[in-house]
């Protein structure tokens, strides 16, 4: 039995893999404001690392990984420093590919087909950047190759109450074959959802091409058979739709039940990062994962020579924290932050260059770059990470003066607060 497994491993190890991380762009992610005013959402820190860094680290564990591609329509300059640092650190080439316009999750893949296939990969890992999970890619890849289908998608069982917010699916309980897929259906289909993590063979490009061709033919017929043909040029919105192809509705739904697609279930954590509040929740999940994967990233302290640390806490090496401060659980402190005597931090993300003065309290909040909290100030949220005002968010350069209380508020950049506020969005 051992000989058979060794032989399988040797065969598999010769198959190259590339990874593609889909990042979207500035025309989306408006729910992430005001934090996305300063920073592309994929670079927002979760547990002290950029959001996109977590799936990249998971891809790095795949044997024979040839390349990591990041696809989006952010400006290239926003990622150049991060990518140059990352490529040196990981010893795996990471490249940003900028779309000229939104092409959809499958259309973006197809646009860069030649580059993605440059290393002649046997398999292509595709992940959405705004997904937070343990990314069990090694086990998923093994299952994918055993199925022998065109693709495998990561799935998870959730409560019926939230299933309709995602793509629901039905799979064969024995073989794992995807039998039916519906994106955000109006009526309940299943409590299994699509996690936005896929592995495909290169056959996916042929399927996307067929969908694109079919859409183009329909758009041409519509233009030629309607009054719109007289007024809409060949660059019309219908032509735009032809090369806008989505993995979920355009690929998964029609391919289900044809022995092409299979599922891989995860029982570990999974969340979608749509709102700033979910950043705090996902930071907690990644900090807990560090305890197993990278315990050296977690801070320790007993309140004597270093601050008191409760639970999982990340402190950037350049941050300065007074030994009488008390941190945790679930606290992430970024570069050059200064945390003063007696400060209390719970379930929060503190961004670069923040100053928190003595005896200030931060709870269920995100404190933006270069902001400051005065003595005995209090910034807190209710802890409902999905609600619009479930946490407090301070944008860049917000000053909360001494003894001021801010509860469940969103404060846009460069404001000074000298009176207490609650349940407000301050523009």
UniProtKB/TrEMBL annotation:
Originating species: Physcomitrium patens (Spreading-leaved earth moss)
GO terms of molecular function: nucleotidyltransferase activity
Family named by the database record: Belongs to the transferase hexapeptide repeat family.
Gene of this entry: LOC112273283
Annotated ranges, domain Mannose-1-phosphate guanyltransferase C-terminal: 309-426
Source species, domain of life: Eukaryota
Residues annotated as domain Nucleotidyl transferase: 19-217
Any one GO cellular component localisation term in the record: cytoplasm
Designated name of the protein: Uncharacterized protein
């Amino acid at each position: 039995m051992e000989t058979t497994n060794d032989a399988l491993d040797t065969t598999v190890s010769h198959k190259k893999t590339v990874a593609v991380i889909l990042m979207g762009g500035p025309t989306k992610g408006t729910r992430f404001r005001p934090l996305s005013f300063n920073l592309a959402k994929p670079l927002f820190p979760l547990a002290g690392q950029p959001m996109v860094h977590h799936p990249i680290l998971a891809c790095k564990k795949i044997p024979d990984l040839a390349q990591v591609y990041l696809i989006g329509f952010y400006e290239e300059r926003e990622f150049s420093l991060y990518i140059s640092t990352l490529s040196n650190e990981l010893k795996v080439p990471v490249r940003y590919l900028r779309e000229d316009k939104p092409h959809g999750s499958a259309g973006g893949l197809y646009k860069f087909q030649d580059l993605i296939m440059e290393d002649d990969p046997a398999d292509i890992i595709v992940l959405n950047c705004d997904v937070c999970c343990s990314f069990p890619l090694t086990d998923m890849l093994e299952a994918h190759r055993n199925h022998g289908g065109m693709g495998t998608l990561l799935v998870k069982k959730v409560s019926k109450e939230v299933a309709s917010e995602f793509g629901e699916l039905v799979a064969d309980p024995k073989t794992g074959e995807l039998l039916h897929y519906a994106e955000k259906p109006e009526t309940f289909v299943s409590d299994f959802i699509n996690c936005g993590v896929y592995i495909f063979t290169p056959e996916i490009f042929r399927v996307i091409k067929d969908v694109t061709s079919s859409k183009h033919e329909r758009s041409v017929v519509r233009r030629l058979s309607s009054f719109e043909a007289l007024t809409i040029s060949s660059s019309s919105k219908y032509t735009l739709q032809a090369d806008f192809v989505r993995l979920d509705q355009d690929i998964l739904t029609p391919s289900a039940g044809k022995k092409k697609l299979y599922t891989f279930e995860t029982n570990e954590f999974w969340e979608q990062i749509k709102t700033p509040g979910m950043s705090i929740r996902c930071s907690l999940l990644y900090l807990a994962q560090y305890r197993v994967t990278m315990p050296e990233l977690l801070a320790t302290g007993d309140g004597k020579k270093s601050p008191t640390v409760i639970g999982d806490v990340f402190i950037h090496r350049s941050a300065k924290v007074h030994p009488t401060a008390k941190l945790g659980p679930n606290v992430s402190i970024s570069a050059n932050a200064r945390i003063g005597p007696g400060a209390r931090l719970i379930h929060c993300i503190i961004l670069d260059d923040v100053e928190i003065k003595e005896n200030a309290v931060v709870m269920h909040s995100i404190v933006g770059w270069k902001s400051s909290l005065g003595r005995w100030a209090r910034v807190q949220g209710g802890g409902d990470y999905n609600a619009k005002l479930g946490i407090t968010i301070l944008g860049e350069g917000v000053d909360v003066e001494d003894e001021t209380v801010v509860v469940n508020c969103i404060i846009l950049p460069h404001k000074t607060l000298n009176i207490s506020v609650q349940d407000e969005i301050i523009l």
